[in-house]
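User: Design a sequence. Structure:
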């Protein structure tokens, strides 16, 4: 799924490739997005032919930028939006979706958050992990540290797959 979505976004943003750092900008934008995050950014970087190290740095920065905003601001924003007719249903649905995935984080606390963010499977990542951490009222600075470590872990795993590094090691 992430591969198809990353490919679609690379095509959608292809006009940016004519800019001096257009490919890097595409990768950065994709890494900022929920659902795709660093994982999709690295897939996109590989499709665009960017180097692994440069791509990792760009994707890492793009993926960690939303973390403090989610941890510190999402709860007050959600509380405000739940008071409106227009957004109450959407916010409640997002909270319920996040809380349905809370088991690993709730049981293992910060190590659970690290693993939730760091193991790149659908429905996990920094956005959802930090949303869950915020809703569970986890200590924000510590949650931020473990989420960032999880992004590094996910980045290493995705580099191994996106750039064929694992295949080169095995063969």
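Assistant: Done.
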């Amino acid at each position: 799924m992430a591969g198809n979505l990353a490919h679609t976004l690379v095509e959608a943003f292809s006009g940016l490739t004519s800019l001096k750092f257009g490919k890097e900008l595409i990768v950065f934008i994709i890494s900022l997005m929920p659902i795709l995050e660093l994982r999709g950014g690295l897939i996109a970087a590989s499709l665009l032919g960017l180097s692994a190290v440069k791509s990792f740095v760009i994707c890492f920065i793009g993926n960690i930028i939303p973390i403090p905003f989610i941890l510190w601001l999402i709860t007050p924003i959600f509380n405000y939006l739940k008071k409106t007719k227009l957004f109450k249903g959407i916010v409640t649905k997002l909270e319920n979706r996040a809380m349905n995935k809370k088991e690993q984080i709730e049981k293992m606390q910060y190590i659970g958050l690290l693993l939730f963010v760091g193991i790149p499977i659908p429905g996990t990542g920094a956005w959802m992990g930090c949303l869950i951490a915020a809703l569970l009222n986890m200590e924000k600075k510590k949650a931020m540290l473990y989420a960032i470590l999880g992004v590094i872990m996910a980045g290493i795993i995705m580099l191994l797959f996106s750039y064929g590094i694992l295949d080169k090691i095995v063969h």
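The longest helix spans residues 140-162. The mean pLDDT is 91.
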